[in-house]
Design goal:
The chain is an alpha+beta fold. Helix content is 21%, strand content 36%. Strands 1, 2, 3 and 4 form a 4-stranded antiparallel β-sheet that branches. The N and C termini lie far apart (30 Å).
């Protein structure tokens, strides 16, 4: 699938999805402090997951939150 280009704040969540809400919270806090959230879906890219390995500790999910930067990096 090809997604349209977007400026994203990105965090990678390690492990299974039982605690992915913590990573979303940390990313959301960063967005509030450093950027403006913009309209558009949050993106999840499964870098490694159950289809790749049966070891949940090895799973990696990239979360991309659409933003418009308002402070320097």
């Amino acid at each position: 699938m090809t997604l349209p280009a977007a400026e994203l704040a990105v965090a990678t969540h390690p492990g299974d999805h039982d605690t992915i809400d913590v990573t979303y919270g940390e990313l959301g806090r960063w967005v509030v402090e450093h950027a403006l959230a913009v309209t558009g879906p949050v993106r999840e890219v499964y870098l490694s997951g159950p289809r790749d390995t049966s070891a949940p500790a090895a799973w990696r999910t990239e979360i991309g939150w659409p933003v418009f930067r308002v402070t320097p990096a």
